[in-house]
Amino acid sequence: MRSDDKYLEISHLTKVYPKPDGGEAVIVRDFDFAIAKGEFVCLIGHSGCGKSTVLSIAAGLLPPTEGGVLVDDKEIPGPGPDRGVVFQSPCLLPWMTAFDNVLLGVEVVKPLSTRAERAAIVTRYLERVGLAGAMHKQPSELSQGMRQRVGLARAFALDPKVLLLDEPFGMLDSLTRFELQEVLVDTWAADRKTALMVTHDVDEALFLADRIALMTNGPAARLGGVLDVPFPRPRTRAAVLEHPDYYVLREKLIAFLEEHAVSKAA
User: Fold this and answer.
1) Helix, coil or strand: residue 264
2) Is this prediction's pTM over 0.85?
């Protein structure tokens, strides 16, 4: 990757926590990775390896011990609307409708727009994620999958430079997860936001990503390799499954995860 292609740059990232006995717990050590503008990258690894730590630092929610994160050549000072974040649980305000939950962020990033313009943005993204008929319902009236659709709409509606997703479909059943993966790839394809998504699901990563970053197990987790995903876009699940490279790449990912599962157990 050329230096001018580095739109989201995670540079020599290290995260250390003090231990009660006076020692140190090294979660991530010298993690170094960059993503080009408009690229969708999945970060994959076993649960507890530090994937969410990397994402939380990129979101500005955790300070790094060493290293840093650049977005569009600017070091991030903390959380900001230039990064739209989607968590495993969407954390919607329960007294607000789906529409108002999305509008809340749009009002912050579009203060000079008219009320009608902001409402149009909210409506557009809720319609894109399939909530045209439910946008005025409160979270308690929505299923878990529908609430996560609101979370996706809220992140995209901010028009962020970077989209960060932390296992957003991890709490959903298989059918709903497949549906939301389709929603995500279709919504992302409309404007190609630079995206980094944490997952431990091999098939999910292959369906969504342009590249897959492989993370070793902790302690002191690091980047263990990068896999290019050659499937053309726009993508359908059927086309991905029928691609001659699909099962070859799948086996490579599984072999990496099995190798590190063995090393962790040892």
Assistant:
1) helix
2) yes
What tokens were used for 117? Answer: 């313009």
In angstroms, the CA 105 to CA 195 distance is: 19
Query: In angstroms, rounded to a whole number, what is the distance separating the alpha carbons of residues 148 and 167?
Result: 11
Q: What string of DSSP letters covers 192-244?
A: --EEEEEE--HHHHHHH-SEEEEE--SSSB-EEEEEE----SS--HHHHHHST
* Res 265: pLDDT: 47
Banded model confidence at residue 4, pLDDT cuts 50, 70, 90: low
Calpha distance 137→140 (Å, rounded): 8
CATH 3.40.50.300 domain span(s) along the chain: 1-75+163-266
CATH H-level, domain 1-75+163-266: superfamily: P-loop containing nucleotide triphosphate hydrolases (3.40.50.300)
Which residue type, as a one-letter code, is found at position 57? I
| Calpha distance 243→12 (Å, rounded) | 35
Query: From residue 215, how far is each of 13, 27, 52 by CA, in Å?
Result: 13, 12, 11
32 close to 223: Cβ distance less than 8 angstroms: yes
